[in-house]
Structure to design on (605 residues):
């Protein structure tokens, strides 16, 4: 089983590397992941270390990305920020997927009344501008990174529900599902063992493509001051911190901003590549 | 006569579509005895597949069994709760589908899929079920069962997939097998092999088979009794020899004339004029009358009931009363 999984993983990575865009995406993500994991080694200073003698220093060899108002090393903060960005992105998408896939499966599988109710709820949530709704939720449950993650997840699961529902609907009438019923499988077993495995590729693609918007939403909320509280090196919060010094020390805001862009770009490229790879029409 | 294995009484299965009520199966009655091959023949869209799906209670939405009885070994299947019905499916009654390309789960090996039913119905542990699956793969005459068991469906040909399907469906020793055009989507040589395989298994296990087909040639080869369906109703029913020797319903006669071997005329094959009726709004009276060469005024008004014209030979036609 383990060898099987490893073999399949390496096969996937090879496929990813074959495509120009997904290769770029893959290496960008790999780079960010290495930053996140190796942060204590890569970063020359701790992200919260204040050095009031070296405030607002421009980028130099000593401080690659310069220093901020409190003399903290921006490079170190950006590196540690990768941890938060990845953690937030993955956590948000996991929660979204858990809610969205469950509802999508139920709606697609049972159809009828259950489908109507779930679709109505999905459309309602979908109709709100996500950031405004997330702002509302954060105002209700209070600021903080965990709350922001919850809020973003609560407002953005409908993407999953809609796509999974459509995919399940197309699978439910396939003959192998009928055959599964004909040997006496229960509904739960059919959903988990016959339908879910066939939806997994789709889920992976949506998940990868949802990570950047999750990161963007959380950084936006942090930028507005609802998310990570100081001195947490959240990229959104860092952009916001540097705003007041934008003309004097543009590096404080720019570098975390650039990293937000790079990370999102990486996930988007990877997601697009995965979509091509997992498209059954190309595979068959 | 002995008690039949399956008795279908006045079964009605309708699809509630936005265009109207489609009467796919409209008052069908027949019996299937033990160790018998019963054929249902008819054109596409005459309700044969819906009939099979109704027996195992898997009519897809928006279809619904609106009336009738399906009595299997003295139990009315239509009155069973879904949980009890699930115990019947696979163990007592199983069904083979038309298209083997779509009827296997693409993400699991075929051994795993064959082992599934014994695990559900007999609580077999997975090692024993796996061994059983390998035995079954050998039984449906595939070479190298150990290797095949680890294959995924996309690695197999259409014929092998249909064999897998057969193995899956006989794994729990059902008494009744519904075969919905099991050989339609494979080529002719494979068709013959599959049919022989099915018949050998049937003989060995004393199973009954309801074979659904549009191929009269197939009927002649393997069946004991035949029901000819037209527009949701059975128009003629009887022992296969009797039907071939003396087809009584004009539709059955037409179908026989369509057979390439049966016709003496050179060149063109015979076709029954006209189209099968729309089942949302079927013609009044006898449903075949618009296409029937012998129609009378009575046929337009009155629907002929299925009556026993000769011993165990039933016909629904005003010509034979």
């Amino acid at each position: 089983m383990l060898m099987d999984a490893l073999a399949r993983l390496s096969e996937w990575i090879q496929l990813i590397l074959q495509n120009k865009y997904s290769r770029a995406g893959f290496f960008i993500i790999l780079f960010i992941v290495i930053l996140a994991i190796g942060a204590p080694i890569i970063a020359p200073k701790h992200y919260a270390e204040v050095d009031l003698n070296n405030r607002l220093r421009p980028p130099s060899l000593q401080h690659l990305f310069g220093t901020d108002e409190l003399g903290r090393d921006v490079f170190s903060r950006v590196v540690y920020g990768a941890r938060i960005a990845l953690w937030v992105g993955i956590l948000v998408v996991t929660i979204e997927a858990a809610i969205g896939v469950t509802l999508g499966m139920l709606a697609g599988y049972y159809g009828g009344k259950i489908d109507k109710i779930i679709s109505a709820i999905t459309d309602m949530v979908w109709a709100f501008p996500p950031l405004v709704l997330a702002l509302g939720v954060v105002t209700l449950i209070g600021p903080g990174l965990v709350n922001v993650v919850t809020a973003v997840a609560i407002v953005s699961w409908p993407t999953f529900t809609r796509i999974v529902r459509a995919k399940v609907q197309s699978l439910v009438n396939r003959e192998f599902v009928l055959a599964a019923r004909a040997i006496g499988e229960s509904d739960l077993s059919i959903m988990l063992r016959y339908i879910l495995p066939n939806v997994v590729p789709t889920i992976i693609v949506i998940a990868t493509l949802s990570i950047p918007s999750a990161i963007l939403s959380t950084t936006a909320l942090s930028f507005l001051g609802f998310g990570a509280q100081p001195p947490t090196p959240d990229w959104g919060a860092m952009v916001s911190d540097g705003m007041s010094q934008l003309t004097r020390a543009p590096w404080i805001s720019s570098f975390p901003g650039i990293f937000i862009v790079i990370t999102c770009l990486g996930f988007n490229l990877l997601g697009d590549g995965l979509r091509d790879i997992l498209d059954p029409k190309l595979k068959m | 006569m002995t008690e039949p294995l399956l008795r279908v009484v006045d079964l009605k299965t309708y699809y509630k579509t936005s265009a109207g009520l489609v009467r796919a199966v409209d008052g069908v009655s027949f019996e299937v005895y033990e160790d018998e091959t019963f054929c249902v023949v008819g054109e596409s869209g005459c309700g044969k597949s819906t009939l099979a799906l109704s027996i195992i209670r898997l009519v897809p939405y928006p279809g619904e069994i609106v009336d009738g009885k399906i009595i299997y070994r003295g139990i009315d299947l239509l009155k069973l709760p879904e949980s009890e019905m699930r115990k019947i499916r696979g163990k007592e009654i199983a069904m083979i589908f038309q298209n083997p390309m779509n009827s296997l789960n693409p993400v699991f090996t075929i051994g795993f899929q064959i082992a599934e039913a014994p695990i559900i119905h007999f609580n077999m542990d997975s090692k024993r079920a796996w061994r059983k699956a390998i035995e079954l793969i050998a039984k449906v005459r595939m070479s190298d069962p150990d290797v095949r068991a680890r294959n995924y469906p996309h690695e197999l040909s259409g014929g092998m997939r249909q064999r897998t399907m057969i193995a899956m469906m006989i794994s729990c020793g059902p008494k009744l097998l519904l075969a919905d055009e099991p050989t339609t989507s494979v080529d002719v040589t494979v068709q013959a092999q599959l049919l022989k395989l099915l018949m050998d298994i049937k003989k060995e296990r004393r199973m009954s088979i309801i074979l659904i087909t549009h191929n009269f040639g197939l009927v002649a080869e393997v069946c004991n009794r035949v029901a000819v369906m037209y527009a949701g109703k059975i128009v003629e029913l009887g022992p296969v020899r009797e039907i071939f020797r003396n087809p009584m319903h004009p539709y059955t006669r037409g179908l026989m004339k369509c057979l390439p071997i049966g016709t003496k005329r050179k060149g063109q094959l015979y076709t029954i004029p006209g189209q099968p009726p729309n089942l949302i709004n079927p013609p009044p009276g006898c449903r075949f009358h618009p296409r029937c060469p012998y129609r009378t005024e009575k046929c337009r008004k009155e629907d002929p009931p299925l009556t026993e014209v000769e011993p165990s030979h039933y016909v629904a036609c005003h010509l034979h009363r």
